[in-house]
Amino acid sequence: MAPPPPCCVLVVRCCSGSLPSPPPPPPRPSPSNNLRIARREFVLRSSELATLAAIFHLSGTKPRYLGVQKSPPSLALCPATNNCVSTCEDITDSIHYAPPWNYNPKDGRRAKPITKHEAINQLIQVVTQTKPDNFTPRLVEKTDDYVRVEYESPIFGFVDDVEFWFPPGNKSIVQYRSASRSGFIDFNANKKRVGTGKQRLGFRKHHLNLTSRKQTPLVEVEGLHRRRF
Fold it and tell me: 103 and 172 in contact (C-beta within 8 Å)?
């Protein structure tokens, strides 16, 4: 029988030797290492998002519809997003409606009623010194019956607009609107903010007479049709 070709001999000889052992697997990170990696990644992602916020101005621009509306006199409605509350919404809207305040409630703790001017000054003092969720407040507008405060988030610079309006008359009522400029949800941050302010001021909810709320035509808020009541 003829011997195999040389190439086959070489192959057989090469394969006849012992194969090198595979490298050992890398050690699995311990739970503490996993936690440190997750925290480090979170910090890196936060830094990246903060840089993007600075570049793209995530604070947003002031909405053009802020302030007291003329017809009828009231604060603006909320957009359809779930990051706004307003006393001018329909009382059945559990997402956007918030009850107005009374700064001279009958069941309040005040021994002597205060004037509208005194109530405005107290409100400014409280809201500018309160940092809900570490948002920094800044008083940007004040008149004889209107106050607007901007709240800025500590990391990304998001801005929420909070308005207070003291309607004419002798009912000691405070209307307000708190809304985020960007995003779609706020995890009830705006409701918590106004609730904290009311509690620190000692104001009470003003109970509306539902029979006096008449339906009026649709109005437009930033292109979103909402019904005013």
Answer: yes
